[in-house]
Every structure is written in C-alpha cells, then in structure tokens.
Input
Amino acid sequence: MTVRELDAAGIHEPALRAAYTHCRGLNARHGKTYFLATRLLPVDRRPAVHALYGFARWADDIVDDLDSSATPGERAHALLALEAQLEAGLRRDRATEPVIRALADTARRYGIDRRHFTDFLASMRSDLTVGGYASYEELGRYMHGSAAVIGLQMLPVLGTVGPREQAAPHAAALGVAFQLTNFLRDVGEDLDRGRLYLPAELLAAHGVDRERFEWSRSTGAQDARITDVLRAAAAHNRAVYRDALPGIAMLAPVSRPCIRTAFVLYSGILDAIEADGYAVLHRRAVVPRRRRAAVALDGLVRAVAVRAASRSGRGKPVAGPCDAAPSSRPRVAGAPAPVREEAV
Output
C-alpha cells in the first residue's frame, strides 16, 4: 500500500519516497489508533499525515522516553538539534534526516504555517523543566503548542468545505481533547516522569494534592477523593470533545470518516477509564478490541460510500491545499498531540 500512497500523492523522488516510508513505519508501530484512522483517508493524503505524525513522535520520544538514560540537559540539546534541522528543512530545503525531509515537503505542499511546528517544539521544551500546572488556563497555554497545533497542522491536509479559519478552532479543540484523554489515561506514567497534567486547582477543589497522587501511585492504594478528581477531569475532557464535534462537518467529506473514527475511538478511552473505576494511577484503561474493530468497520463503510459519491460527482467541492487563508492562532478555551503510543 505504501507505493500506491506515494504514487497517488505525486511523490516520485526516491529519497523523498524513502523518507515518507520511514514516517509511515513510525506511525504503524507507535500510533495504533491514529494509524488505524489514517487508513480511512484517501490514499493521496496519507503520506502527509504520516510525516506530521513522525515529526511529533520524534520530539515526544526525546522528551518522554522512559527507557532512555539521557539527562535533561542532553534531551534539551537533542531538541535544539531537532529545531535546527527543522529550520534547515523549512527555510532552506536542506534537510537530510528522513522525518524532517518528509515534514518539510508536506509543509510546502499544503501551505502549513511553520509557526505550528515551532510552537510545538516550545511546548516540548517546557516538559523538560515544568512538572505541573496551577490552572486549566495555564495548562491551556501549554496545550496550544503540544496539542492544538496538531489539529491546525492537519487541517490543510484534510481539506474543508468552507473557509479554513472557520474550522480552525474546532480542529484545535480536537487536538486538545485527544491530549486531555492521553493525560488522563497516562497519569500514572506521567507521574513517573515527574509530571502531572491535572491542574493544582482541580486537585485542591477535591481536597487532595500532588503528594497524595504520588502516594497512591507508589502504594497502589485507592482514595475516593482522587477518583473524584479523575471523574471531574473526564467531564472536562468530554466538554472539549463537544466543542470539537461541529468541526467534523466542516471537513472535506472524504476526510470525515477518518476524523470521526478517531473521535469515537479516542473519546471511547474515557468510557474505558470510567468502566475501570478510574484506576489510571495503577493500570492503563484499554478499549476492547471488538469495539475498536466495530468502529473501524463503520468508518470504512462511510469512507467507501463517500468516495463512491465523490466519483459519481455528488460530492461537494472542498478547499484543498493552499487555497484557503491560513488560520489565525486560536484561543483554546479551558484547556495536543496524541503522539504517545496509543495502545487503546
């Protein structure tokens, strides 16, 4: 399928094809839910999504790889090196590293604002020194770079049925919703990394603090107040999903099955967390395989129907690469990138 995707996207230069193939491999290995949803996109759009994922995954691994013995200083140096390569690729077309080569090509093809990549790296750098957030407002500023921009990067690739700037806030909200779900699912693992993405104000409202979370993580003991915090965080997350939902109808029809499938699968993680009694400090909640298969099948049926309608001329015109004004920096109310391993 890789050859078909590259041919459909008009990617013919051998080194560039190899770069995109490398990114596709990263997505297939590490982004299970994301890769599954990507398979529902038209073949010509998949390489760009793989390139965007590959870049985000590379940066995230520099910051978060628990198996690495790298010091914070070494991780910071690696991020600076990545940023230098990104600059060379985007501005001077001199990228030699496969991920950056594919990313730079995607950014040019689809007119993706380079600020989205630099904002993302800024949030990744903050993870090396910031271990907690006082409020949802403060967390939201972090998530603009770590999650909202992921949605904004994707928007030109997916296409829209109207002005791109109208869909941009919803795309940003969906990136934030996905990352809030990651934060809730991975709260125990993040504590092991020295971070807690649940705002201090939320903990205080339920009479607990970070030390109580660390105690529960280390001892395996339960605390009803911690469960209340996690339940409230899930409710907040669901509200962000509701903010994002109208944006799916604003996408190009051929892209909607992919994003709808990702939406259903990712929001389903919240259902799995609830069904497991909010025990995320002690184990990872998993969406049942049968449920994943059913959602994927529904998405496939929708994708086939939309493509058939498009071929018969019944599809609506869409805004494609570079034919809409770049979106402005959105305001992310009350609250990135689903780039961690997504074993849902």
Notes: The CA atoms of residues 118 and 257 lie 29 Å apart. The chain is about 65% helix and 0% strand. The longest helix spans residues 136-158. Residues 315-344 have pLDDT under 50 and may be disordered.
